[in-house]
Amino acid sequence: MLPALIVIAVLAGLALVIRSRGWREIVYAVSDGAPHWFVAVRFREGEARRSVALPIGITLKWGASANFAFVGAGDCHFDRFLVLSGSPRDSRLPVFLDPHVEDAYVARVRLVRPPVMMLGLLRLLHDFGLRRMPEGEVETDPSRTGARPDAMPTREGVATLLSCPLDYKPAMVNFLRYRERAAHDAQGKPDETGRRAYARYGLVALETVYRTGGRLVFFGRVEETLVEAKAGALAGTWDDIGVMQYTEPKAILTMEQVAKYRDALKDRDAGLDATVIIASTADPG
Q: What gap in Å lies between CA 87 and CA 231, rounded to an integer?
């Protein structure tokens, strides 16, 4: 009887530790409250503004400065990314697009809150060294992977990333648009949607990001686009937007050394219609 009680106590204690680690993840702070909005702004040339004015009733949940295009774009076009929460009291938009703003993208998003125990376990496995970042040289020529070229970083993007200081922690802002139907039938489901195919990849990607020491900042479904970008690679509408934060420049490139992740790329490629990924620097705190 006593050994059984000890086992139960140990398991209960472990569950509490996992839950505690999970609740410390930034995704839960960012996704707290509702509704949420994602905003990208481009300032006019010569403007030094690094912030935008928010209406009464709107709170900044996360912000970042765009650095460079990593996937699917020649340049990042936008200067700032914001996640906002609340309801504007006297404005239809959650941000004031004053004359300093040259271009903008504004969307109402429904942020996803993953199971806290799942993220807590992933964090615990990494912190205890049971799941570590793969070692060895990273691939600097994405064309060698055999994956869909327009969904992979450019050689220039990889070179720029690897030239960043070692303490650079890139927040990769992912813009995702899905095919109505997946391009292949990898799971024996001929009518599978592109979103469903990408979701299988997304679970593997999340696990692999945490293996490198990174974390999920937010992931949201676009429910309404209020302002479309007028120019640049982000012009048009998008289905989902998400951000993964990495611990160092090369971390995202080590993911392709994980066999499970490489196998999942076929689902990503089958589900996506288009994607753009912008490397950014998250605001302190």
A: 27
Burial of 189 (0-12, 13-18, 19+ CB in 10 A): exposed
CATH number at 224 reads 3.30.70.100
User: Is 155 domain-assigned?
Assistant: yes
In a domain, 126, yes or no: yes
What's the pTM value of the predicted model, to 2 decimals?
0.93
Residue 169 near residue 213 (C-beta atoms within 8 A)? no
From the list 243, 250, 251, the residue with the least C-alpha distance to 281 is 243
Neighbours of 91 (CB within 10 A): 15
The Cα 41–Cα 63 span in angstroms is 11
For 191-248, the pLDDT digits (tens) are 799 999 999 999 999 999 999 999 999 999 999 999 999 998 899 999 999 999 999 9
Q: How far, in whole angstroms, is CA 41 from its chain's centroid?
A: 18
Q: Is residue 275 part of a domain?
A: yes
- Residue 37 domain-assigned? no
